[in-house]
Every structure is written in structure tokens, then in C-alpha cells.
């Protein structure tokens, strides 16, 4: 049984058009399927929780953006269920990271005909000691989270997303946040080794390279169990941060001496003040967080042959 979860708001309404095209396709008519539209923020999580309570023989097909797949993964109570993703959001970094390519109908055909599955290890995090939540693409603390927050709040984001210029809204937010943002003091405990960074701009952990609608924030990130890469930017001038972010688009920002890329199995972040954070583009604030990888992989289907393992 294939169960679609569609976010009608994703991609400024694009998910509705994508799902309507899917329903008109020949492949959809052959499928034993059901569908649910999300009706409010967090509804994707509630639907996924209910479906995955009885996972046998089921595949959830998410039609939406990174926020929708984030909700669905957070709702899963079993990793036995298969997950497929048809990108219809404005960023779609999860699809890039997993090698989900092609037109919606082609992806649907791969889901039902190729039957290939790839394990994917999502991340766990806590914020201020509250229950464990999951991140699918990345979690970031500091400057990048402040940018994501400003972009999410902006009036121009919807308009630019509708024109397919989602990354431009990120760039505008970046310049705006750069004007007022001040680096923070953070204590990092990386696999039990403590470091105090007095002038820390950002710390980002990624399950695959893509971020902010196609930027390769950690170009070397690979889908793997147990270990995650973390990128730290600290002790850098404002103007150099701007230069650094321009080079993110070329993937050469990691050559700056102020950029460190490490690997860890656990990371604890603490700060005296509240730090902005973003998980898969959704934002919040906290003064402590613990990050690790979920032990069991989730099973992703609908991927390109070259990516299947
Ligand atoms: N019916 C709804 N009304 C309002 N918001 C909704 C509804 N259903 C889901 N949402 C919210 O929509 C938000 C945005 O969804 P999503 O991130 O998938 O799309 P996007 O922002 O266009 O894509 P991306 O994150 O890839 O840029 C999610 O955080 C989700 O909670």
C-alpha cells in the first residue's frame, strides 16, 4: 500500500499541482494507494505517526518540501516503513542529497517498479533538554540559523519562491543579518573533548552536503551511520564572512582558514545566551543542544539506480 502525504502549501502551492499531475498519470492508476493532505503545521508528523504504527507493506510518499519530510520523519514510530519523496517545495535539499531525480511521474515509476531502497541515517537533537527530535538534512546554530529565520519571516520569500528564486531570498536575508549579527561564545563538547570558542559565527551538522536550496555547505558530507561532519566558522571578520558565503556557491568556502570541518559521533553545544538554530529550514532558539545520529536507518525508495546500495 502506498500512502501519499501532500503539503498543499509547499512550494507556494506547487505540491498541489504536482499531486494533481500524479493523479492523472497512468502509473498512479495502477497503484493501491491512499492520500492525505496536511491541514496545519505539524500535521505531517501526526499522519506519519498513525500510518507507521502498523508499518507492514507500506510506503509513505511525501509530496512537499524539506519542512514536510522533516515532519514525516519526526512522526515515524517504525523504521520498517519505506519512505519516498517527490520534491515540490522551494528548496528540496533532501531530494538532492538522496539522488532523487526526474519528473514526478518518473520518480513514481521508480518507486513502484524499480523497488530500490537506500538506507538513510537521520540525526537526533535535543534543544534545552526537551525530548529528542530528528533532523533530516542539517542542523545549524548561529549565523546560518539567523539567516534562515530572517528569510522565513520575510515578505519577499513567498514571491521569490513562486518565481523559483528561493536562493535569492536566502542571499537577501544573509546581507540583512550580516549588518547586525554578532558572533557568540559557545562551548562545544565534540566526542567528550571540550572546546570554548569565544567568537563563534556558526556550527552546522549535515547528513548530506546540500543546504539552503542547493548550496553545498559541507561538500564532503556523505550519507553514513554513526558519524556526522560538523562545520565550524569562528574568529573571522564580518567582511570575510561575506566573502566566505559568496564562495559557498562555488563550494570553495572550506579553504578559508577560519572554517573547520571535523567529524564526531556526539556533539554537545552550550552557550550563556540563547542561540538561534535551524533544523531543515525551521528555526528556534536554545542555549544547549545534544546531537547524535539515529542508530536505525530509514529506508528511502524512488532513488536513482546509481545511488542505491
Ligand atoms: N495546510 C497547511 N497550512 C499551513 N502550513 C502548512 C500546512 N501543511 C503543512 N504546513 C507547513 O508548511 C511548511 C513548509 O513546508 P515545506 O518546507 O515542505 O515547503 P517549502 O518551504 O516550500 O519547501 P522547502 O523547505 O524545501 O524550501 C512546513 O513547515 C509545514 O509545517
From TrEMBL:
Alphabetical GO biological process terms: phospholipid biosynthetic process
Family: Belongs to the diacylglycerol/lipid kinase family.
Domain DAGKc: 1-129
Domain of life: Bacteria
TM segment ranges: 159-181, 231-252
Protein's name in the database: Diacylglycerol kinase family lipid kinase
GO molecular function, one term: ATP binding
Gene3D superfamilies given in the database record: 2.60.200.40, Probable inorganic polyphosphate/atp-NAD kinase, domain 1
Keywords from the named record: ATP-binding, Kinase, Lipid biosynthesis, Lipid metabolism, Membrane, Nucleotide-binding, Phospholipid biosynthesis, Phospholipid metabolism, Transferase, Transmembrane, Transmembrane helix
Names of required cofactors: Mg(2+)
SMART domains found in the cross-reference section: DAGKc (SM00046)
Amino acid at each position: 500500500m502506498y500512502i501519499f502525504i501532500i503539503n498543499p502549501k509547499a512550494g507556494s502551492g506547487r505540491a498541489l499541482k504536482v499531486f494533481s499531475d500524479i493523479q492523472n498519470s497512468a502509473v498512479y492508476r495502477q497503484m493501491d494507494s491512499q492520500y492525505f493532505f496536511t491541514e496545519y503545521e505539524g500535521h505531517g508528523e501526526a499522519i506519519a505517526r498513525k500510518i507507521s504504527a502498523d508499518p507492514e507493506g507500506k510506503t509513505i510518499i511525501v509530496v512537499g518540501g524539506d519542512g514536510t519530510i522533516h515532519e514525516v520523519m519526526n512522526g515515524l514510530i517504525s523504521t520498517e516503513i519505506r519512505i519516498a519523496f517527490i520534491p515540490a517545495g522551494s528548496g528540496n535539499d533532501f531530494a538532492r542529497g538522496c539522488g532523487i531525480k526526474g519528473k514526478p511521474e518518473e520518480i513514481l515509476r521508480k518507486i513502484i517498479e524499480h523497488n530500490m531502497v537506500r538506507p538513510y541515517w537521520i540525526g537526533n537533537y535535543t534543544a534545552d533538554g526537551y525530548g529528542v527530535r530528528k533532523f533530516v538534512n542539517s542542523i545549524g546554530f548561529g549565523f546560518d540559523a539567523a539567516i534562515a529565520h530572517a528569510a522565513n519571516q520575510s515578505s519577499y520569500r513567498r514571491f521569490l519562491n513562486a518565481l523559483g528564486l528561493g536562493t535569492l531570498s536566502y542571499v537577501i536575508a544573509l546581507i540583512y543579518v550580516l549588518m547586525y549579527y554578532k558572533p557568540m561564545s559557545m562551548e562545544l563538547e565534540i566526542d567528550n573533548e571540550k572546546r570554548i570558542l569565544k567568537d563563534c559565527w556558526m556550527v552546522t551538522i549535515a547528513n548530506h552536503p546540500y543546504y539552503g536550496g542547493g548550496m553545498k555547505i559541507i561538500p564532503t558530507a556523505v550519507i553514513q551511520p554513526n558519524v556526522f561532519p560538523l562545520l565550524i566558522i569562528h574568529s573571522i571578520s564580518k567582511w570575510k564572512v561575506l566573502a566566505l558565503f559568496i564562495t559557498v556557491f562555488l563550494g570553495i568556502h572550506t579553504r578559508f582558514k577560519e572554517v573547520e570541518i571535523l567529524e564526531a559521533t556526539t556533539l554537545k553545544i552550550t552557550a550563556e545566551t540563547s542561540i538561534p538554530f535551524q533544523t531543515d529550514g525551521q528555526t528556534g532558539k536554545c542555549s544547549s543542544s545534544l546531537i547524535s545520529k539515529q542508530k536505525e536507518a530509514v529506508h528511502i525508495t524512488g532513488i536513482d539506480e546509481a545511488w542505491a546500495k
